[in-house]
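Input/output pair, single chain:
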Amino acid sequence: MPAPTTIRTPRLELARWREHEFTELRAVLDLCDAHLRPWIPFMRDEPRSLDDTRARVAQFIASFDEGQHFRYVVRDRGTGAFVGEVMLLTRGAPGTLEIGYWLHQDQCGRGYAKEATAALLPVAFEDLGAARVAVVCDEHNAPSIAVAHSLGVTFDELRELVEDGAPVRLMTFVLPREVWLERRA
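Output:
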């Protein structure tokens, strides 16, 4: 079964990216650059041009259609305000989907990341048949680590990489399908 194009939670709507949203994405990334740059690897390629941002959103759409990566723009259901992005990425070990997320700087501290990422677990396990879900984040990103823990994941490994000439230590947390099913029972 394919991933749903729209997911609703009590406060949020997660919807696959649409072509016309590239201008809003560009504005949000420009506004939130300093907030996101320390934690989000794709920010090292920012700022992109408006045309490059359009192409990036087109790639999000194509990847979703091809069943590769499932990226959702997150909006407040009441106001339609842009909250952030959550995603299920098919990178890493076979059978593993990685959950990623980032929030607009004005939307932090409201529990939105927890609510949006939790909504991806049934998609990962039920719709897409993942054997496990992984969350990967910088060891110094305490809010992101808190979101990972809220999903019920357990620490798996610490990896050190070199990005842009500097060491980065990434923590990987995992949630096996069996554990998720037991918790739902």
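The helical segments are 22-31, 33-36, 50-65, 112-127, 142-150, 177-184. The chain is about 35% helix and 30% strand.
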